Task: inverse folding
């Protein structure tokens, strides 16, 4: 199996949404074509795709605002997990962020996703104690 990591294209917005549904990614308010297209219009390098045999097998959103770096929406098709795809995506995201000047990366994991938490711990990330997350949909 050959994995190629590349930047997503705006024309792939619908395919990415189908991929997220197939990969059991937790849906968010911005899971629509307009949301994906807006992300890529703002930063064409913000969404990395793992391509396996011509199909989307994984994604990660790479956020950088010049101050903080954040990783979102790491997802891999269930049947292709444990083949190094997530690790390759994270490595590519980390490299991209370091090249932009990021010194600290952060991410959010759904509380009951033990496998996800375990993955991130194995990738060298630590759970940060003493923080609460606040959100507001607008």
Result:
């Amino acid at each position: 199996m050959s994995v190629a990591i590349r930047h997503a294209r705006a024309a792939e917005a619908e395919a990415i949404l189908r991929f997220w549904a197939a990969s059991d990614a937790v849906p968010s308010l911005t899971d629509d074509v307009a949301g994906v297209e807006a992300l890529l219009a703002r930063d064409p390098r913000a969404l990395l795709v793992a391509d396996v045999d011509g199909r989307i097998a994984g994604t990660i959103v790479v956020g950088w605002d010049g101050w903080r770096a954040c990783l979102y929406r790491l997802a891999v098709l269930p049947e292709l997990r444990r083949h190094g795809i997530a690790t390759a995506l994270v490595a590519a995201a980390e490299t991209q962020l370091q090249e932009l000047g990021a010194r600290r990366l952060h991410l959010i994991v759904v509380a009951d996703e033990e496998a996800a938490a375990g993955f991130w711990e194995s990738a060298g990330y630590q759970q940060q104690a003493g923080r609460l997350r606040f959100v507001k949909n607008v």
Notes: The first strand starts at residue 3 and ends at 7. The domain at 3-122 is CATH 3.40.630.30 (Aminopeptidase). The two ends are 42 Å apart (CA to CA).
